[in-house]
Amino acid sequence: MWVFENCCFCIDLRTGCFIIAYLQMVGEIIITTMSFLGIGTAQVLINSSDPDNRAIGLALMVVCVITLLFVVVFLAFTIVLLVGLHKNKPGHVKLFLIYSVVFMVFYIVSVIVNIAMTGPPALNIVSSVFYILLDIYFLLVLRSYWVKMGSGNALYGTA
């Protein structure tokens, strides 16, 4: 499999991994904040007297809570990644890579199901494909650094 020497053809691999990890964490914090705002909005809709608004509020509440659960777990793994990068622990980076691949598979399946069921606009399809390709590139960069860390086959590398 590919092992990159640089991130984005010009940035040191280690620095690129730190940039990816910190941007990942900032994105997760933003999504967490938006999920809490969505839960608040759903609560207002659920308390509405209109039954249609209650149904929409309940659906929004379910979506926001599920999103929040996934993102909080992903945030924990991102923190594990950052610890692994800062302390040069390949096992931590490997844990993040495993979870990220599993999460990406679920995301790809959900995008395919969404396209099959609703037929979203072409812009949504293009943005989803772009996100998936960018995420694959970032995972390959992180994997390249993990390989260069001397990962071996052990889940937890040297201290």
Task: List the main descriptive attributes of the protein structure presented here.
4 helices, 159 residues, mainly alpha, 3% strand, two-stranded antiparallel ribbon, transmembrane helix, 2 strands, disordered C terminus, elongated
Explain this structure.
Helices cover 80% and strands 3% of the residues. It has 159 residues and is an all-alpha fold. It has a two-stranded antiparallel sheet with strand order 1-2. Strand 1 and strand 2 form a beta hairpin. Helix 1 (13-46) packs across helix 4, helix 2 (51-87) runs antiparallel to helix 3 and helix 3 (90-118) runs antiparallel to helix 4. The longest helix is centred in the middle third of the chain and has 37 residues, at 51-87. Mean pLDDT is 88; it is low at 152-159. Keywords: Membrane, Transmembrane, Transmembrane helix. It comes from Parnassius mnemosyne (clouded apollo). This is MARVEL domain-containing protein. The chain crosses the membrane at residues 21-46, 58-83, 95-116, 122-142.
Principal-axes geometry comes out as: elongated
Strand order of the largest sheet: 1-2
The share of residues in extended strands comes to under 5%
SS-derived structural category = mainly alpha
- Residue runs with pLDDT of under 50 for 5 or more positions: 152-159
Tally of DSSP β-strands: 2
Rg (CA only): 19 Å
- The topology string of helices and strands comes to EEHHHH
Organism: Parnassius mnemosyne
Transmembrane segments: 21-46, 58-83, 95-116, 122-142
Keywords: Membrane, Transmembrane, Transmembrane helix
Protein name: MARVEL domain-containing protein
